[in-house]
Amino acid sequence: QVQLQESGPGLVKPSETLSLTCAVSGFSISSGYYWGWIRQPPGKGLEWIGSMSHSGGSYYNPSLRSRVTISLDTSKNQFSLKLSSVTAADTAVYYCARRVGYCNAGDCYVHYFDYWGQGTLVSVSS
Amino acid sequence: QSVLTQPPSMSAAPGQKVTISCSGSSSNIGNNYVSWYQQLPGTAPKLLIYENDKRPSGIPDRFSGSKSGSSATLGITGLQTGDEADYYCGTWDSSLSAGVFGGGTKLTVL
Prior knowledge:
Distance between the termini of chain A: 39 Å
Strand content of chain A: over 45%
Radius of gyration of chain A: 14 Å
Low-confidence stretches of chain B: none
Largest sheet of chain B: 6 strands, mixed
Shape of chain B: globular
Structural class of chain B: mainly beta
Helix content of chain A: under 10%
Oligomer: heterodimer
Strand content of chain B: 35-45%
Order of helices and strands of chain B: EEEEEEEEE
Number of strands of chain B: 9
Number of helices of chain B: 0
Number of strands of chain A: 11
Shape of chain A: globular
Mean pLDDT of chain A: 95
Largest sheet of chain A: 7 strands, mixed
Distance between the termini of chain B: 29 Å
Radius of gyration of chain B: 13 Å
């Protein structure tokens, strides 16, 4: 059974960098799939942040691309999210997930998340 | 403002059937596959339907999905109080080059 678990600071100061890690068990991230992040502001809907594969392919939400970095550490079977220059608008529950997708030249006609972490709340406040 | 439009809330009685709509455009639902997620209170989203109408292992056949043109529908039959949750549709938007979700529908079973 594939399991994902997020970890990282629950409080980040404005203008600083949010850093989260997602530990994966039950599946080797180097075996395939893309690995991604989704967030949910309190009381609001889901927002896709981005996804990355072990081969280096990546997709990012255009609205966040300039501030987001996703990286994979296959030796530890985990992947990470860094979001720079955060503001209060970045306060959210952050989920990591395994992405299933079929894409051609950057266009994905299949794109969904089959396994999710439990989520971690990150608040941005001084 | 979400790219995909869902009704904010719906309600139905136990045992009844409900259909939740998800409306998009040719750049997303019209040309790409749709997925649906169930988010029970205080928990992470869970995949209910993928590739328009397929159910992952363990999802009961009370849940069904369909797509027509640029709209998709999630159907739930034999409603149970345990189905009270937020439901989200999702897909890829080819114009935005981004994954997108609907705004979510809060289902109340009363």
